[in-house]
Amino acid sequence: MRTPVILVGVDGSPESRAALRWAMEEAEHRGARVEAVLAHQQEPVMVPAVPMGLNPYGEMPQRHPARELHDAVEQVRAAVPGAPDVAESVVVGDAADHLTEASKHAELLVIGTRGRGAVREFLAHGVAARCLRHAACPVVVVPPSAR
Known about the structure:
Layout (H helix, E strand, L loop, with lengths): L4 E5 L4 H17 L2 E8 L24 H15 L6 E7 L2 H8 L5 E5 L6 H6 L1 H9 L4 E4 L5
Parallel strand pairs: 1-2, 1-4, 2-3, 4-5
């Protein structure tokens, strides 16, 4: 018998951390394992024309998605007594596409939402809406008030 998987989308926001916390607590009740996924868009590579000897990248901040995900997971794990281990995965591309594809092997998909606008707006746009429509497993949407 395989261990059930709770998949959770993490983007570093407080809402996604609330979703991760909910997923960790639920995993303890279900005897499931947690997989946290952070999807990011590949940033274009550009080399500016500069005089020789100058470093055009000296002041440009570098993004480290794997570190961002790991930091979020560790911060939430520290706040959840008995938190399970979390498998961390960073993917390049659209979050909704990756989460719905990964939902094929999950028992549950958990995502946070900023909850902007009316319900109709929420259901029409965004990662949460697309996951609700296309996921291959039940989806739990953790509202902003769950923080």
